[in-house]
Amino acid sequence: MMRLIRAEVRKLATIRLWLWILLAAAAWTAGYTALAVGFSGRPGSLTLPLTGAAGQHALLAIGAGGAGPLVAILGAIGMTTEYRHRTAAATFLATPRRGRAVTAKLATCLLAGAGYGLLCDLLSLAVAVPWLAARGIHLPLAGNGNLAVLAAVIVSASVFAVAGAGLGALAGGQLATVTSLLIYLYVAEPLLTHIAALHDWTAYLPGVAADALTQATQAGVTLLAPWLGGIVFAAWAAALAAAGTLRTLRRDIT
Amino acid sequence: MKEGAGWIVVAGLTKRFGGVTAVDELSFTAAPGMVTGFLGPNGAGKTTTLRMLLGLVTPDAGTAAIGGRRYRDLPQPGRQVGAVLEAAAFHPGRSGRDHLLVYCTACGYPPARAAQVLEQVGLAGAGRRKVRGYSLGMRQRLALATALLGDPAVLVLDEPANGLDPEGIAWLRGLLRGYAGGGRTVLFSSHALAEVEQLADRVVIVSAGRLAGEGALAELAAGAAAVSVRTAHSSQLATAVATAGGRAERTGPGSLRVTGLAAAEVSRIARAHRIDLHELTAGHGGLEQVYLALTAATDREQSPSGQADRS
Questions:
Q1: Which residue, of A70, B138, B215, B286, has the fewest CB within 10 Å?
Q2: In the predicted model, is pLDDT for residue A244 greater than 80?
Q3: Residues on chain A bordering chain B, Cβ-to-Cβ distance under 8 angstroms
């Protein structure tokens, strides 16, 4: 299995995609962190005061918002590229037990997601800590429960990557997978979560459950407790991964 | 014996896609030490058959085994079977060398194998270029390089000559010959008879998903070429031909169609039996005629497989 994971890492590393996703995640995290710090404390600012724990949590959770959906796309493209470029045949010739090949890819996505999450953590700290320090605000790594948020960003990104790869294996088509992923995360789910009557129910949607992990506050949206959100989100990803694996085992590679 | 190492045995293989039967109770074998051509028109079910052989497509019925085992049951399949399925099946943004290294890693071969097979297929200078910039012939060579990575005892190639120039085909011929000469098994598909004539020792002809013929090339050509004869003593001649090992069928009053014997032999038999011939026409044998006749017959009648086996 280690061999197969190393092969999948090599696949990911030998095409440019990982770099674009990395740059996009970095730009998102650095950009929004800079905006949040720059506009905080000004009149009319929507961000919570960064002196308090809630404000600092929201600030550090920005990385999850950037890395999460982007690594989901990475996972989705990484999986569907096998069908788009017809390399699936060679992959399953090398590993005829397809379950093992898919598991290796899912594991690779999990690792890659964790790496991207860690990178976004480091980047948001690099932007926020010195800037806030210059304004006399202390952003402790371990204090205020900040470490838990930083860890949640890493967990969130890894689970997002697995969910994206699972969806890719289930759907098969690259364009269809990425489009449906984006429409779900940025259109369908935000619409549903703005219907207050459904709040008890929408808290269990995958994207909202992912937000619960970092407690990233969206005005007027009900979130689960972090641990429960994590379990719910992981369950969604596991379900997608299982369904995708099953589909892969059964499909004819024509 | 056909369970033995290197034998490819396809038995009763059937695959339906929706309402279309792509492969219909197909049975054939490919032996070690030989290049077997898998010949048939486009859409005859060749690709589907090879993909079933390699465990990529699940058959609706029948079995396909290599060395007595299904592909997915082979331990270390890459070391036993090398396959070329589609020349275009690469990520365009990956270099040829990186493509090979992925499979080296997945199968546990030393990374040096990548450079060796690139050398072997004549791509040593292009390994670091992205596949996007490869010509069709170069992609075909890279696909072959992938198949050769594990130094396998069996090669299964789907249309390997596609995109190769005459020089490339000559090179492929040398490669396949060398492989078979060393006692290994080569099975390749083609829709072009000329390619099969150039590359194969033995041919399996498929048409509309069914077996239309199987045998050594020369044998098939001779067996199916017919001699037309007209004589007043057709039944006597028919008996004499049958005694000599040929086959005669009546095509009209006083006319016979003889297969399995050359025109000169038919003439000699007739003279030995003092039978006057009014007409003796040597059939234009040639593999092309045979191929067209065999595939046309299956297309038209959807006749049961195995007819040409008896020839």
A1: B286
A2: yes
A3: 3-4, 6-7, 10-11, 14-17, 81, 85-87, 89-97, 250, 252-254
- Specify if B72 maps to a domain: yes
Does residue A112 carry a pLDDT above 90? yes
pLDDT at position B109 over 60:
yes
Of B48, B58, B102, the CB nearest to A10: B102
Report yes or no on B302 lying in a domain.
no
Region of poorest pLDDT, from A132-136, B112-116, B211-215, B261-265: B261-265
Q: Which residues of B touch A6 (CB under 8 A)?
A: 105
pLDDT confidence of residue B284: 59
Rounded to a whole number, what is the distance in Å from the CA of A142 to chain B's nearest CA?
A: 40
Res A43: pLDDT: 67
Q: Do B272 and B136 lie in a common domain?
A: no
Pair B32, B132 in one domain = yes
The pTM score is 0.84
Domain harbouring B243, CATH code: 3.30.70
The CATH number assigned to the domain holding B183 equals: 3.40.50.300
**Which of B103, B128, B132 to mutate: most A Cβ within 10 Å?**
B103
Give me the pLDDT at residue A46, please: 64
Does one domain contain both B27 and B143?
yes
B242 and B156 together in one domain: no
Overall domain count for chain B: 2
B102 touches chain A (CB under 8 A): yes
Cross-chain residue pair B58–A252, CB shorter than 8 Å: yes
Query: What is the DSSP secondary-structure string of chain B?
Result: -TTSTT-EEEEEEEEEETTEEEEEEEEEEE-TTEEEEEE--TTSSHHHHHHHHTTSS--SEEEEEETTB-GGGSSSHHHHEEEE--TT-S-TTSBHHHHHHHHHHHHT--THHHHHHHHHTT-GGGTTSBGGG--HHHHHHHHHHHHHTT--SEEEEESTTTT--HHHHHHHHHHHHHHHHTT-EEEEEES-HHHHHHH-SEEEEEETTEEEEEEEHHHHHHHH-EEEEE-TTHHHHHHHHHHTT-EEEEEETTEEEEESS-HHHHHHHHHHTT---SEEE----HHHHHHHHHHHHHHHH-PPTTGGGG-
In terms of domains, do B108 and B154 share one? yes
| CB contacts, 8 Å: B130 with chain A | none
* B301 belongs to a structural domain: no
Residues B122 and B163 in one domain: yes
B66 and B196 share one domain: yes
Cβ separation of A94 and B93 shorter than 8 Å?
no
Residue B249: per-residue pLDDT: 82
Q: Which domain holds residue B243?
A: 226-283
Size of interface A-B (CB pairs under 8 A): 84
Give the pLDDT of residue A55: 87
Asked if B106's CB is within 8 angstroms of A89's CB, the reply is no
Which of B185, B214, B243 is the C-terminal boundary of a domain?
Answer: B214
Residue B221: inside a domain: no
Q: Rounded mean pLDDT of B74-98?
A: 90
Using the predicted structure, report yes or no on whether residue A247 has a pLDDT greater than 60: yes
Interface ipTM > 0.90: no
The residue in chain B having the minimum alpha-carbon distance to the alpha carbon of residue A104 is: B106
- Is the Cβ pair A252, B146 closer than 8 Å? no
